[in-house]
Specification:
The protein is of the alpha+beta class. Helix content is 34%, strand content 24%.
Length: 281
């Protein structure tokens, strides 16, 4: 029998409009992000937990890649597993169909809920309200960014009781085609808190940093750099030691040092988030 991610709750979900799939998870188990969450852009997402069978991750994605619906993926994974009664899994496919499995021998409270675009599940929980909070919060936050919805659901689940044994680690994993750094991968977010007294709060802090550095402000909200703003940029950069005959070069050098280069594209227009950060300095 495989080693387990005991006392775990997770939410597997997608945003079909944004073409994003992801998993958020919290556990009384170290480094839960190394075991539970699996996702592939334009394919789907999987969570494997309880006495976790890690092969459910790659095998489940393989079945999703072949076009199988979430329910059929769960059926095939569990049918081939002699210890399925100890397993818990959630799956969302490329069309947003969801399925959740809780084996008969998972420790109470254990169970799951599915809805449009999500599968919520947990084991060794204080009560069913933890999973209900995952599902309810995901539904109520429609319209927000998928990572934010996943994190809000984790926080609500913890507030509702969470794991019976407490907290230890948490993770957030979201994929979208060509969304990674420099558009060189499909991993939009991969954040992990491996061992922390308050892992969800720490995960939310890390997400805030990630969104600041790598988030995308709609181009229609970018500010044109007129003479007055160009002068302000030049003066502020010079005060920080980035004086250069070329404003664009000075601006890009500063942004690179501050890890904001993904939000800078020349100096004809400026991302208001970047401008706010420069003004803070």
């Amino acid at each position: 029998m495989a080693n387990g991610c005991w006392a775990t709750y997770s939410l597997v979900a997608c945003d079909l409009e944004a073409r994003q799939w992801g998993v958020a998870v919290q556990s009384k188990f170290p480094a839960v992000g190394a075991v539970v969450p699996w996702a592939e852009a334009e394919v789907g997402a999987v969570a494997t937990q309880a006495v976790a069978n890690v092969s459910y991750g790659p095998d489940g994605l393989g079945l999703l890649r072949d076009g199988l619906a979430a329910e059929e993926v769960v059926r095939r994974l569990t049918a081939a597993d002699r210890d399925e009664e100890h397993r818990q899994a959630g799956v969302v496919d490329r069309q947003g169909r969801a399925a959740s499995h809780t084996g008969a021998s998972c420790l109470e409270w254990a169970g799951g809920l599915i809805g449009e675009g999500y599968a919520a599940q947990g084991n060794i929980l204080v009560s069913a309200e933890t999973v209900t909070a995952l599902a309810r919060t995901f539904e109520e936050t429609a319209g927000r960014k998928l990572p934010e919805r996943l994190l809000a659901a984790l926080a609500a689940a913890q507030q509702a009781g969470g794991d019976r044994r407490g907290q230890q680690s948490a993770a957030l994993y979201v994929v979208q085609k060509d969304s990674g750094y420099g558009a060189s991968s499909d991993i939009l977010v991969d954040l992990r808190v491996d061992d922390h007294e308050h892992p969800i709060e720490e995960l939310q802090r890390l997400w805030g940093i990630h969104d600041l550095l790598f988030g995308k402000t709609p181009e229609g909200e970018w500010l044109p750099v007129d003479d007055a703003l160009a002068g302000e940029l030049r003066d502020r950069l010079a005060e920080l030691g980035y004086a250069d005959e070329s404003l664009e070069r000075a601006f890009e050098t500063w942004a690179g040092v501050e890890n904001l280069e993904e939000r800078v594209h020349g100096v004809e227009r400026v991302d208001p988030v970047v401008l706010a950060e420069l003004r803070k300095r």
